[in-house]
Amino acid sequence: MFDIAIIGAGPAGGSAALFTAKAGKKTVLIDSDQSITKKAWIENHYGVPEIKGPDLVETGIKQAQKFGAELVKAKAADIQKKNDGFQIITEDGSEIEAKAVILATGLLVDLAEKVGLTTKAGTEPRIKTVFDVDAAGRTNIDGIWAAGTAAGVSVHTIITAGDGARVAVNVISEMNGARYVDHDLLK
Fold first, then answer.
1. What residue stretches are annotated with the FAD/NAD(P)-binding domain (predicted)?
2. What are phi and psi of 89, to 5 degrees?
3. Predicted confidence (pLDDT) per residue in 147-176, tens digit
4. Are the C-beta atoms of residues 118 and 132 closer than 8 Å to each other?
5. Fewer CB near the terminus (10 Å): N or C of the chain?
């Protein structure tokens, strides 16, 4: 069983996976290759003069994998509550178990109705529906969190990446029972 399953490997999901894996949490990143970032040309991402969206996504995935995150290329079709966490069923019938789930599905909130997640109207242009989350990123189902555009933040990659990190830190902190902070020093 994984500690944390992250559904969606765009900037929010990749950033969340980087933080959770680096914190030593057994992390799986489930991605269906549908990120809107894959169509983007980006010149407003702090620290990066310019980058193609697919390159940004790939870099984020590689960073998370460096710290042990596992990538599963599949589309999540259902999430079922189990005694000690969740079972994620992919479209091909594979089953992945995790103690907690972070939804970083961008524009895709189709799991909401099936799983019983509360949604609300989006506020960004062209974003009709988002998961209804609290200030920490929790949904109405204990143990399922949401980050990035799917959770109602701006579609800009720098903002969704930051939100993925923020929600991951909140999940890690809850699991650890103390506020998690990760600061590296120059070597």
1. 72-161
2. -110, 125
3. 999 999 999 999 999 999 999 999 999 999
4. yes
5. C
